[in-house]
Amino acid sequence: MKEKFRFGIIGLGKMGLIRAREVERSPDAVLVSGADPDEGRRRAFHGISLHSDYRSLLADEPDVVVVCTPNVFTPDIVADALDAGCHVFCEKPPGRTVEDVERIVRAEARNPELKLKFGFNHRYHAAIREAKSVVDSGRLGEVMWLRGIYGKSGGADFEESWRSSREVCGGGILLDQGIHMIDLFRFFCGDFTEVKSMVSTAYWNIPVEDNAFALLRDASGRIALLHSSSTQWKHRFSFEVFATDGYVLVNGILSSTRSYGDESITVARKQFDDGFALGRPREEVVYFDKDPSWELELADFVHCIQYDEPVLSGTSADALAAMKLVYEIYESDSSWEQATQDKLDALHRFGTKTEGGREA
């Protein structure tokens, strides 16, 4: 067994810095190389081999590659890293399209001795882990329905961000952030078989969605309700599980900016018969002050490599299923694709800067 696994990070922006911090903290990993075409980002790293092109990083033969790049580059880099003999940890989204993820799955199949994991770190947040434990225990009965709201405010430079480019990202807020909520729905319920949706660009002058509303139903009849938004002017994360005998609520999610508020879990059993608490059951609320998700996610991945155990969370199957649901939500709204194409054509034709979706 290796004393420490040699890590290389491709993409040295915000997520690259976060992942580098966790690699450096890990007792089983050492950061040896990084790659980014931006010289300024490379200058933020010291004491490692630095490259402007990811292929030269792969030539260093790291044991593990962490991919933190915009969606358009992800499939090529992940496939090339696997074919170069590297284990791969890849940030979400896993590409721009379902076909992108299928390419990655084929590369994984060519290299069955290697481990591949995707960064759905919300599964590792303390409140989510506690909620999963409560639901899986059965003490609240059988799950009936889920509801998730994940929204942020786009910000002054949102329209110019690469995250608002269809060519770079493939989609908007649903693919960028809402995919986390979709993954959590699957984490708690498994696969969904029916999708109904409404998708819109309500405010931002961008060729991708800024709001997605979706209803998902699984084979057992359980329903999940999703709202993903970049016009949620007050940032919000809310994940709710209602079961036959009670409910679990997760409100807030700890982030680097703390803009989603305190992270907490509320657990309660339904009450009908004490005469004064109808609709007001007793609730137990627990708050969490630390976000262990980055550390736990990396430790889980390293453990799989060390002991040659299968990756069980954040698998390529999870990534592919989440991406398929994203695109089913897009395609379920028959007016969305045409509206998006019209917006893209207008942007290309006029290059007009707008304010709130209106010409400035």
What can you see in these coordinates?
By secondary structure, this protein is of the alpha/beta class. It folds into two domains: 5-114, Rossmann fold; 124-294 and 321-355, Dihydrodipicolinate Reductase, domain 2, CATH 3.30.360.10. The chain has helices at 14-25, 39-43, 54-59, 74-83, 98-110, 126-137, 166-169, 173-189, 293-306, 316-332, 336-350, and strands at residues 5-10, 29-35, 49-51, 64-67, 87-91, 116-119, 143-153, 194-200, 211-217, 223-229, 231-243, 246-251, 263-269, 283-288, 354-355, 358-359. The strands form three sheets. The protein has an eight-stranded mixed β-sheet. The chain has a six-stranded parallel β-sheet with strand order 3-2-1-4-5-6, with helices on both faces. Strands 15-16 form a two-stranded antiparallel sheet. Helix 4 (74-83) packs parallel to helix 5 (98-110), helix 5 (98-110) packs antiparallel against helix 10 and helix 8 (173-189) crosses helix 10 (316-332). Mean pLDDT is 93; it is low at 352-360.
What is the compact description of this entry?
With 360 residues, the protein is of the alpha/beta class.
Structural class: alpha/beta
CATH topology of the largest domain: Dihydrodipicolinate Reductase, domain 2
Largest sheet, spatial ordering of strands: 8-9-10-7-11-12-13-14
User: Briefly, what CATH class of the largest domain?
Assistant: Alpha Beta
Spatial extent as radius of gyration = 21 Å
User: How much β-strand is present in the residues?
Assistant: 25-35%
List the uncertain runs. 352-360
H/E series: EHEHEHEHEHEHEHHEEEEEEEHHHEE
Alpha plus pi helix count: 11
